[in-house]
Amino acid sequence: MTPELDLIGMVSTDLARTVAFYRRLGIDIPPDAEREPHVEVRLPNGLRLAWDDVATIRSFDPDWTPPVGGARTALAFRCADPAEVDRWYAELTAAGGHGHRPPWDAVWGQRYAVVHDPDGNAVDLFAPLPPAES
After folding, report:
1. Closest Cα to residue 25, out of 108, 121, 109, 101?
2. What's the CA gap between 113 and 122, in Å, rounded?
3. Virtual CA dihedral for 87, 91, 92, 95, nearest 10 degrees?
4. What is the rounded CA–CA span in Å between residue 41 and residue 30?
5. Element of type H or E holding 85
6. Are the C-beta atoms of 127 and 78 separated by less than 8 Å?
7. At what angle do helices 82-94 and 15-24 cross, to 10 degrees?
8. Rounded to the nearest 5°, which phi and psi values hold at 28?
9. Which residues contact 60 (CB under 8 A, 6 or more apart)?
């Protein structure tokens, strides 16, 4: 059997802020989950997304240290249309998310933007651009 991607796990330095950020993006996270050291949800497509606080990670990996430099992973969220990319970018940055790349029309045919979550992970927002008129 080939291994199957089942869970994306991230480390959070402040689970309450992290949970609030992803709830704002529409992830259905149970009430009071931010009070737990491990938060895990199953997304509509079956993939699981999880966050652990630093203490939980260090409980089995005592030498764990946070990465330095830029984000090493990105979660990409497809939006309904280009205007939604702009709207979500504005909403997330107004709520305290770090706007890394404001919305732009990418050469690969998408409206694209990048916001960082509370721990500096890249959250990409994208939507297909309408076909160019000839």
Report:
1. 121
2. 10
3. 170
4. 8
5. helix 82-94
6. yes
7. 150
8. -80, 95
9. none
DSSP 60: H
Q: How far is it, in rounded angstroms, from Cα 96 to Cα 115?
A: 10
Tokens encoding 56: 């939980």
Q: Enter the DSSP assignment of 34.
A: G
- Model pLDDT, residue 128: 95
* Whether the Cβ atoms of residue 86 and residue 129 lie closer than 8 Å to each other: no
**The token pair that represents 41 in the structure block:** 């949800």
CA distance 102 to 105: 10
pLDDT tens digits, residue range 31-90? 999 999 999 999 999 999 999 999 999 998 999 888 887 777 889 999 999 999 999 999
> Is 61 exposed, middle or buried (CB count within 10 Å of its CB: 0-12, 13-18, 19+)?
exposed
Write down the pTM of the prediction: 0.85
HSE at residue 93, side-chain half, CA atoms within 13 A, is: 18
